[in-house]
Amino acid sequence: MSSEPRPFNIAVIGSGITGLTLTLSLLRRSIPVTLYEQSSSFKEIGAGVGFHPGAVSALRICSPSIYSAFLAVCTVNAWPSKRNVWFDVFDGTSAVDAPDLASEFQILCEREGWGGVHRARFLDELVGLLADDEKAERIKFGKRVEGIEEEEGGGVRIRFADGTEARADAVVGCDGIKSRTREIIVGDEKKAKCGYSGKYAYRCLIPMAEAIEALGEEKAANTSLWMGPNGHALTFPVSHGTMLNLVAFKTDGKDWPDEKRLTLPATKEEILRDFTEFGPNVNRLIGMINDKPDRWGLFDLAAHPLSSYCKGRICLAGDAAHASTPHHGAGAGMSIEDVAVLAELLVDGSLRGPEDLEAVFSAFDESRRARTQWLVQSSRRAADLYEWRDAEVGRDYGGILKEINARQAYIWNVDMEAEIEAARANLTKRLAAERGE
């Protein structure tokens, strides 16, 4: 007769969307969890973020309340005729005025359930799912991780910069691009750090009324992508269509001047100089960027993908495991996929206690690593296509569309239920082997 499984507790490092979603998912499954965040409060940078259909399916699996939080802030194309259009794609160098400019092609997402959110608004909704007593008990601010060590006999000890320590049965690092948990797992300082992709971006939120004046209603109220030489721009509505999110990307191919800082100050003159080869439509948008803009360096793990997302009872998820450039609009979505798979593995019926957590993390790693590392590489390729940097494809719009469609289909058409079942089967096999069954 089998006994009841012994409980375990999880420490989550980092309170971005990945860490907070994981914390909420574990609480829903009655798994004791504590979230440690180095900042003094919840913070999320950036403006717009997209969720592909598979990611939205993963949100439902994580928790109905998390899915409801997404719906509360989700924005889709305003025109019903554009609901399946992921992007209308335009020649950003064209001199034709935006309202009269025809798209070169459309990237269509026939699968329902995708949309974009304002990152900070979504985080606010997630925080609101925690009761006040849960926030006090489960969320610990001002906790910058210095070290994580596994203890003899099981368990993990976490050392913080303020001199305090905490213990848990296992740790999941969701601490983003600059992940300290990744450094601890990898060991090699160079391989543990994200590298500069050779591209940077400027971001801006534009009131929708001003965006319509600049682009016309069709292009302002719906998602648009503006191609060009060594650069491209995205525009899409957020905050229920009251704002337009602009992200303008530039390829420079140089070294990033300060590896300790992901953003650097820029000037309007520098931005305009970066896009001199673009036409009046893109330059009108760029002119709306505020007078003290930042240049956001785009860093990823393309140069040295991790050989494993786990080591013993320490695991990585989200950007900590597979930081990517944003050119597929799928980095955050794949992080949510991570959470759904990991949360379901942690309540699998084959678990007997904390001693099985290493097998959980190994099954998670095998389930997630190939797909997420493909994204890191493919995202770089997508940007090169949009910027006409491939010598063979160049401005062959039919060739660009064919390849982008194939790549996006791999992202969009994932069956999360099947992914989770495969991960569970892997876990069951591992545990049976360990137990000699």
From TrEMBL:
Entry superkingdom: Eukaryota
One Pfam family hit: FAD_binding_3
Sequence similarity: Belongs to the paxM FAD-dependent monooxygenase family.
UniProt GO MF annotations: FAD binding; oxidoreductase activity
GO biological process: one example: secondary metabolite biosynthetic process
Name of this protein: FAD/NAD(P)-binding domain-containing protein
InterPro entries: FAD-bd (IPR002938), FAD/NAD-bd_sf (IPR036188), FAD_monoxygenase (IPR051104)
Domain FAD-binding residues, every copy: 137-377
Keyword set, alphabetical order: FAD, Flavoprotein, Oxidoreductase
SUPFAM superfamilies: FAD-linked reductases, C-terminal domain, FAD/NAD(P)-binding domain
Taxonomic lineage from the root: Eukaryota, Fungi, Dikarya, Ascomycota, Pezizomycotina
